[in-house]
TrEMBL record:
Residues annotated as signal peptide: 1-22
UniProt family annotation: Belongs to the glycosyl hydrolase 45 (cellulase K) family.
Active site: 34
Single GO MF annotation: cellulase activity
Protein name: Cellulase
SUPFAM superfamilies for the chain: Barwin-like endoglucanases
PROSITE patterns xrefs: GLYCOSYL_HYDROL_F45 (PS01140)
Family matches, as InterPro entries: GH45_Enzymes (IPR052288), Glyco_hydro_45 (IPR000334), RlpA-like_sf (IPR036908)
GO biological process: cellulose catabolic process
Length: 164
């Protein structure tokens, strides 16, 4: 589905991993793709057994235990994997990833947690997007989901890979 640049959403945390939050609420979405290593890609950020996977500059998975510096930092070589882009299951439901800031919560709670977002405005009104939190951002407001909406088919180079 076509994701909006900004839309209002209602959100329901729906996996047991974040039952501490338990309730639904409203929030907003924006979209980003900066290629940087997502914050939850570092070890022990959340309750998940392993950090969010990252990739090298050629979009190949790193098996580094989450310890490689972000390619956006001096001397770093870990990037977001292009596989962390959304896909549609059908007309109404899609899955994806997001940088998240939940009011009254913290990264330890939301890293790798999943949220069901129902859009309440725009062209996608009524459609659902289920996201896993992989990142956060200092510029995010309360209950803000910055959707990792990366590459479109056709963005690949001649070698078939997407380069950051
Ligand atoms: C879309 O997929 C979701 C998740 O599998 C399912 O619950 C829903 O019934 C499907 N909707 C349609 C219109 O097929």
């Amino acid at each position: 589905m076509q994701l909006p640049t900004a839309a209002l959403v209602s959100l329901i945390p729906f996996l047991p991993i974040i039952t501490a939050q338990g309730s639904s609420g409203s929030g907003k979405t924006t979209r980003y793709w900066d290629c940087c290593k997502p914050s939850c890609g570092w070890p022990k950020k959340g309750n998940a057994p392993s950090p969010v996977g990252t990739c090298d500059k050629n979009d190949r998975p790193l098996n580094d235990g989450g310890n490689t510096k972000s390619g956006c930092d001096n001397g770093g070589s870990a990037f977001m994997c292009s596989s962390q882009s959304p896909w549609a299951v059908n007309e109404t439901v899609s899955y994806g990833w997001a940088a998240v800031n939940i009011a009254g919560s913290n990264e330890a709670s939301w890293c790798c947690a999943c949220y069901e977002l129902t859009f309440t405005s725009g062209a996608v009104n009524g459609k659902k997007l289920i996201v896993q939190a992989t990142n956060t951002g200092g510029d995010l407001g309360n209950n803000h989901f910055d959707l990792a909406v990366g590459f479109e088919p056709g963005d690949e180079d001649e070698d078939g890979r997407v380069h950051c």
